[in-house]
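Recall the central idea of this unit: under ordinary conditions, the amino acid sequence of a chain determines the structure it adopts. In this exercise we apply that idea directly, starting from the sequence alone.
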Amino acid sequence: MIARIGKTFSFDAAHHLPNHEGKCAREHGHTYAVTFEAAGPIKEGLGMSDEGMVADFGIFNRVWTEALEPRLDHRNLNESIGEECWPTTAENIALWIFNTAADLYQAHGVKLVAVEVRETPKTFARIEA
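Accordingly, the structure predicted from this sequence is:
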């Protein structure tokens, strides 16, 4: 049996889409929400610290604080990740986050299956493995 678990983080950042015909061509900011979803079997094993879990939620925290938050939070995304993620649309940001995080999760024995990025409470982009 496979279970899915997830955790959501938020960050504030600016960006603009210079070739866009609309308001997003101007520099503006969002409070983004990023949700990570992982999947795996529920671990069994008497006395193991992660018994009954797919993974400890601390793995989500480590990947976020060490690898992603420094590149995203209170940054201009066009400058901080723009060379690897262009244009900085919600779709491309979600893809960049997924690609950046997948191997880091795997190193902890966790399969990352989806990343969702919300620019607003009403708009999102989702990447699934």
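The helical segments are 58-72, 77-80, 90-107.
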